[in-house]
């Protein structure tokens, strides 16, 4: 015979709900494979291998970890774009601006048609087909300023990359 909610007291309802959740938890655990050795995992992430970064905190790095402390936390690190290349500097840049692992360089000379705002050097044969960086003091100054900004960006990106890689590993699970 079935019992209705009205016939059961509050304590009985709580007991029935508790029993139901315990049953469901046990049923779920039957589907899980028991692992007894670390080598049985597909992937193991060791806390000691986590990057040393402000976005990563771990209890094992604390001098006095408390029981209620989180084992570790990982904050999101946003990928930033490199600084914008000034228009007059675009034809002089050699390398990929978006790759922080490859140092940018500035060309020593470029074809005259790539920089119409610059005046080519005259030689005994007439006007040169190339523009030399050493003749363009404003471009040289702009290049120095830009490369300094880019290096700061690239250094931060290289520091942030391992944190983003770690976050992707967690998201893949």
Structure description:
The protein has 173 residues and is α+β, with helices and mostly antiparallel strands. 33% of the residues lie in helices and 12% in strands. The protein has a two-stranded antiparallel sheet. Strands 3-4 form a two-stranded antiparallel ribbon. The protein has a two-stranded antiparallel sheet with strand order 5-8. The mean pLDDT is 84. The radius of gyration is 31 Å and the shape is rod-shaped. Among the domains are: 1-32; 87-171, no CATH class.
State the main characteristics.
two-stranded antiparallel ribbon, 8 strands
| Separate helix tally | 2
Order of strands, widest sheet: 1-2
Oligomeric state of this protein:
single chain
The largest pleated sheet is described as: 2 strands, antiparallel
Shape: rod-shaped
**Strand content range:** 5-15%
Overall helicity: 25-40%
Reading the helices and strands in chain order gives HEEEEEEEEH
Alpha-carbon Rg, integer: 31 Å
**Residue runs with pLDDT of under 50 for 5 or more positions:** none
Distance between the termini: 46 Å
What would the average pLDDT be, to the nearest integer? 84
Tell me the number of strands.
8
Broad structural category = alpha+beta
Short description:
With 173 residues, this protein is an alpha+beta fold.
Sequence-ordered SSE layout with sheet pairings:
Layout: H1 10-31, E1 56-58, E2 72-74, E3 93-94, E4 105-106, E5 109-111, E6 122-123, E7 126-127, E8 130-132, H2 137-171
Antiparallel strand pairs: 1-2, 3-4, 5-8, 6-7
């Amino acid at each position: 015979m079935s019992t209705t909610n009205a016939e059961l007291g509050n304590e009985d309802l709580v007991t029935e709900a508790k029993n139901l959740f315990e049953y469901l938890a046990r049923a779920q655990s039957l589907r899980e494979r028991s692992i007894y050795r670390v080598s049985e995992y597909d992937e193991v992430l060791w806390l000691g291998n986590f990057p040393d970064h402000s976005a990563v905190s771990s209890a094992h790095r604390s001098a006095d970890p408390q029981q209620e402390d989180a084992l570790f936390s990982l904050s999101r690190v946003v990928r930033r774009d490199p600084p914008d290349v000034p228009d007059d500097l675009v034809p002089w840049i050699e390398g990929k601006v978006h790759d922080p692992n490859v140092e940018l360089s500035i060309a020593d000379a470029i074809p005259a048609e790539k920089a119409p705002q610059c005046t080519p050097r005259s030689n005994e044969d007439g006007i040169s087909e190339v523009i030399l960086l050493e003749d363009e003091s404003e471009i040289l100054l702009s290049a120095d300023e830009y490369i300094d900004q880019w290096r700061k960006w690239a250094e931060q990106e290289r520091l942030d990359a391992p944190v983003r890689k770690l976050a992707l590993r967690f998201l893949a699970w």
